[in-house]
Amino acid sequence: MNKNNKLLRITLTALMAALCYVAFTFLQIKIPTPAGYTSFHLGNVFCVLGAILIDGVSGGIAGAIGMGIADLFDPAYVLTVPKTVILKFFIGFITGTMAHKVLEIDEKENADKEIFISILIGMLFNVAAEPLLSFFYYDLILNNTDKAASYLTIAKWTTTLVNATLTVVIGSALAIAIRKRFKR
Question: Are strands 36-41 and 28-33 parallel, antiparallel or unpaired?
């Protein structure tokens, strides 16, 4: 990879991290529950967008940094920073690996279906991993069994599923539209 591509990759990763932060912080609907807050947000959209436009590692780093910093500055989420960093990195990594390595979107002129499938797989990982990792994080690391149990409730699963659905729809539409111009 030449110097300009490295600079472009770093710049795009930083841009996606900033967009993850903005989308999570300002495009969020917080929902109070008896066990704390959950929220609808669009932060994952830019994590998967980075994974499709750049690669899985860059998309994962963008999501981890952007939403990790967002959690750090929000008192409702400050304790979840380590969990967020891990989850968001793997969302990007899985999405990008599926897109670029398994479904080989870089070799195809029209990869709309492959982009959709890659983002769907990344978000299916999130739907399964978010509640389970949250449960173990709160139970084993923070020793808060009540909070851990709350992550297995319908409210937490519902918001995770809605966020994943929004990410698949919006992320796929953006990635397909931008990728065509980006390839030029």
Answer: antiparallel
Quick: pLDDT tens for 19-71: 999 999 999 998 876 656 778 899 999 999 999 999 999 999 999 999 999 99
DSSP 4-39: HHHHHHHHHHHHHHHHHHHHHHHSEEEEEETTEEEE
Its pTM stands at 0.90
Q: How far is CA 9 from CA 58, 95, 172, in A?
A: 8, 17, 20
DSSP 74: -
Q: What residue ranges in the chain does DSSP mark as E strands?
A: 28-33, 36-41
Tokens of 66: 């952007």
Which residue range is the domain that position 126 belongs to?
A: 3-183
- What is the count of structural domains for the chain? 1
CA separation for the pair 55, 72 (Å, rounded): 25
CA distance 96 to 88: 12
Domain at 108, CATH number: 1.10.1760.20
